[in-house]
Design goal:
Elements lengths: L13 H22 L3 E2 L2 E12 L11 E3 L16 E5 L4 E3 L7 E3 L4 H4 L5 E11 L2 E2 L4
Antiparallel strand pairs: 1-8, 2-7, 3-4, 4-5, 6-7
Length: 138
């Protein structure tokens, strides 16, 4: 499967559809070249590994008491450092990120995850290395 976004629920965006088509085409091109015996050199790519799902701050009655801070909104995949703002309480208090390392939040304030008690997901950036590959042509 291929998921390309962000895209609001129930909306079809032409730019997102175009990105999805390009990704699928690249995938099919790779399969064809691999099946023809093309050798692919070693490569390294950056990926983001999910570390933790973060809920909205809640009171003792399990009611949300803060919203995503404006400086975090729309900052998916951007570095979040210790002391950066996360939430803004309904009383105007800023809740900051308290972490030992830089993380990269994603799915920030996504409507589809609200009822799942997920304000965003913390990820860390990693590098993956693949050795060269080649299929033998029959």
């Amino acid at each position: 499967g291929v998921e390309v976004g962000p895209q609001p629920q129930g909306v079809v965006r032409a730019d997102t559809l175009d990105k999805m088509r390009k990704i699928v085409k690249h995938g099919l091109d790779f399969v064809q070249l691999f099946n023809e015996g093309r050798e692919f050199p070693p490569c390294t790519i950056e990926v983001f590994k999910i570390m933790e799902k973060v809920d909205y701050p809640r009171n003792k009655n399990d009611e949300v008491i803060a919203i995503i801070h404006p400086k975090l909104q729309d900052q998916d995949w951007q570095p979040l450092n210790n002391g950066d703002p996360l939430f803004l309480t309904l009383d105007g208090e800023v809740i900051v990120y308290k972490g030992a390392c830089t993380v990269y939040p994603t799915f920030i304030n996504e409507a589809a995850y609200y009822e799942k008690k997920q304000a965003f997901v913390k990820t860390v950036k990693m590098k993956l290395t693949a050795k060269h590959i080649r299929a033998s042509v029959l």
